[in-house]
């Protein structure tokens, strides 16, 4: 059995396409060999697992989550990665509201991670300046 959306060959018992994740029970199954014999060719469907029913892309924000985890705050960034990793599968399963909520949560947690990283960098900078000033004062350079 071939998927109507992506043309991936699947087992006869399969309920979902292993190529694009679409529901094979709801789609009309297309026999590619018969189409090619008739000269019409197979038309691949315009299916993108990151677009919801309204044609709006649901971004997973995974790159932002990974960068905020690596460069800023690891613990908070991991929460962002967990949310963003689930977005694509939720869209594929048709749960658009939850996918959009998880996408927003991933973005929020990424920005919280970035904010904590910037705050930590500012605190370290101020602390370093204070230590330098104390050190200069101890050696008589600030008198």
Automatic annotation (TrEMBL):
Assigned GO CC terms: membrane
InterPro entries in alphabetical order: CD225/Dispanin, CD225/Dispanin_fam, Zinc_ribbon_dom
Principal subcellular localisation of the protein: membrane
Residues annotated as transmembrane: 62-87, 108-134
Recorded superkingdom: Bacteria
Subcellular location: Membrane
Domain Zinc-ribbon: 2-24
Keywords assigned by UniProt, alphabetized: Membrane, Transmembrane, Transmembrane helix
Protein name as it appears in the record: Interferon-induced transmembrane protein
Source organism of the structure: Clostridium cellulovorans (strain ATCC 35296 / DSM 3052 / OCM 3 / 743B)
């Amino acid at each position: 059995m071939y998927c109507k959306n992506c043309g991936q060959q699947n087992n006869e018992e399969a309920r979902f396409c292993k190529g694009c994740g679409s529901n094979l029970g709801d789609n009309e199954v297309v026999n590619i060999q018969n189409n090619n014999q008739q000269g019409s060719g197979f038309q691949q469907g315009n299916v993108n697992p990151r677009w919801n029913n309204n044609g709006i892309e649901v971004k997973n924000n995974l790159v932002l989550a990974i960068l905020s985890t690596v460069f800023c705050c690891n613990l908070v960034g991991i929460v962002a990665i967990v949310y963003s990793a689930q977005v694509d599968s939720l869209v594929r399963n048709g749960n658009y509201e939850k996918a959009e909520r998880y996408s927003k949560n991933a973005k929020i947690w990424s920005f919280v991670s970035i904010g904590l990283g910037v705050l930590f960098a500012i605190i370290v900078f101020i602390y370093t300046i204070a230590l330098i000033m104390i050190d200069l004062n101890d050696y008589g350079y600030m008198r």
